[in-house]
Amino acid sequence: MPASSKSQQRLMGMVDQCKKTGDCASSKIEKIANSMKSKDVKKFAKTKHKGLPEKVKEHMTFKDFMLGEQAQDGFSVFMAAVDKLLEDIVGIGHDHLEDWVWMSAYEDEYTPQDAVNAFMEETGMDMY
């Protein structure tokens, strides 16, 4: 799980230093260091800067940052179910239909069926 921004990589570099030497730059760094495994910290800290944005979206919480990879896996499962439902109903997956806010539906904890129903209703598509 590589860092998704330069600032995340630098943060994890400080956390790595704290874990190795016990010399923590702040109590927040120490708290993060105590809550993570060394191998996970190293994965973030060793990320190359090339191509990374300086910062991630400002509304991203630390929990979102830490769970980003798992959350993406959950969204992938959600979208696979959405695609299956859409293929059963209209014969094509979401990527062939007009844009819709699938991530918002996922974050709002819609079931795949509820998301498809909302999509069909909002776009005026017939279900059968």
Averaged pLDDT: 79
Query: Treating each run of at least 4 consecutive H or I residues as one helix, how many helices?
Result: 6
> Uncertain spans, ≥5 residues at pLDDT below 50?
none
The major pleated sheet works out as: none
The secondary-structure element order is HHHHHH
C-alpha geometry = elongated
Spatial extent as radius of gyration:
20 Å
Q: Estimate what percentage of residues fall within beta strands.
A: under 5%
How many domains make up the 3D coordinates?
2
Class derived from helix and strand content: mainly alpha
Task: Measure the end-to-end span.
Answer: 42 Å
Total beta strands: 0
Helix content range: 55-70%
Question: Keywords for this structure?
Answer:
128 residues; mainly alpha; 2 domains; 62% helix; 0% strand; elongated
Summarize the structure in words:
The chain has 128 residues and is an all-alpha fold. It has 2 domains: 1-56, no CATH class; 61-128, no CATH class. 62% of the residues lie in helices and 0% in strands. It has helices at 6-21, 27-35, 38-45, 62-90, 102-107, 112-123. The longest helix has 29 residues, at 62-90. The relative contact order is 0.11.
Overview in brief:
The chain has helices spanning 6-21, 27-35, 38-45, 62-90, 102-107, 112-123.
Layout of strands and helices, then pairs:
Layout: H1 6-21, H2 27-35, H3 38-45, H4 62-90, H5 102-107, H6 112-123
